[in-house]
Specification:
158 residues; 5-stranded antiparallel β-sheet; alpha+beta; 28% strand; two-stranded antiparallel ribbon; 6 helices
């Protein structure tokens, strides 16, 4: 292979990889304007689908994050991590639906996909292995000052 073709190949492969990554990220997140009442109703309907509404990650009296125990290790596997993040001050809801295969990528890829949600799995003390062990559950349900809301949950295979 001559030098010109080698250089072209070395430029095209990373460009193709970045394009595929950008397409994947653009398909997992959605931003829309929404009123608090609709966001609250959507979050409540998600919570109603779980028999155990207690989130995995909670905050103790001193404000430290606490990761709860795995409640049922025999649960079915998960296929999607969902995040709803609402900022009431600007009326913006960010919804991210990340397939499990995407979670297996390196941490910077996950952070990039969830950049507008304010959710960082590493800061929450959750690894992909932890999320899988917990199975389909509510991971985080947090109401922040100003009535911002963050809801993170996993969905399992039927």
């Amino acid at each position: 292979m001559n030098t010109r073709r080698w250089i072209l190949l070395c430029l095209l492969v990373p460009a193709l990889g970045l394009s595929v990554f950008a397409l994947a990220v653009s398909r997992v997140s959605h931003v829309e304007r929404m009123k608090w009442e609709r966001v609250s109703a959507r979050a409540d309907s998600v919570r109603a689908t779980f028999s155990d509404p207690q989130p995995v990650v909670t905050t103790d009296d001193e404000g430290h994050l606490v990761v709860g125990p795995v409640r049922n290790p025999q649960q079915r596997s998960i296929h999607t991590l969902h995040v709803l993040a609402y900022r009431r001050s600007i009326g913006r809801l960010v919804q991210v639906d990340v397939p499990v295969w995407f979670l297996r990528l390196k941490a910077p890829a996950i952070r990039f996909a969830m950049r507008e949600t304010g959710v960082d799995l590493q800061e929450l003390g959750l690894t992909v292995a932890d999320i899988r062990r917990h199975g389909p559950r509510i991971l985080v349900d947090e109401r922040r000052p100003g009535e911002d809301r963050v809801l993170v949950w996993t969905e399992g295979n039927p």
